[in-house]
Amino acid sequence: MRKHREVSQTTKRIQNQLFKALVLQTALPTIFIYIPTIIVFITPLLNLEIGPWGNIAIVTIHLYPGTDPLILLILISDFRGALIKTPQKILNATNSVIQKSTTIL
């Protein structure tokens, strides 16, 4: 079977977008889950008080599931385009008025 060595520009662009999204989706748990949790567990061992700042770990852990899909919606151009066009379609649909006419004989 013959192997294709050339890849289209569209395929390269999509692969680049997916790679960036994958890297960010890999880094996101580290930023939102692991680092805050490690800080919360390490500070008592070092006799440090973080006070109300300890709540940041709880907040960031709960923010993670909502921010993870946003990476795909923002970085992948087809998804981003659909995200931008959807409100425009909704606004155009609500602005259009359907007129009914009735004729009484």
Automatic annotation (TrEMBL):
<dbReference type="GO" id="GO:0042048">
    <property type="term" value="P:olfactory behavior"/>
</dbReference>
<feature type="transmembrane region" description="Helical">
    <location>
        <begin position="52"/>
        <end position="76"/>
    </location>
</feature>
<protein>
    <recommendedName>
        <fullName>G-protein coupled receptors family 1 profile domain-containing protein</fullName>
    </recommendedName>
</protein>
<feature type="transmembrane region" description="Helical">
    <location>
        <begin position="21"/>
        <end position="46"/>
    </location>
</feature>
<keyword id="KW-0812">Transmembrane</keyword>
<dbReference type="InterPro" id="IPR019428">
    <property type="entry name" value="7TM_GPCR_serpentine_rcpt_Str"/>
</dbReference>
<dbReference type="GO" id="GO:0005886">
    <property type="term" value="C:plasma membrane"/>
</dbReference>
<dbReference type="Pfam" id="PF10326">
    <property type="entry name" value="7TM_GPCR_Str"/>
</dbReference>
<keyword id="KW-0472">Membrane</keyword>
<keyword id="KW-1133">Transmembrane helix</keyword>
<dbReference type="GO" id="GO:0038022">
    <property type="term" value="F:G protein-coupled olfactory receptor activity"/>
</dbReference>
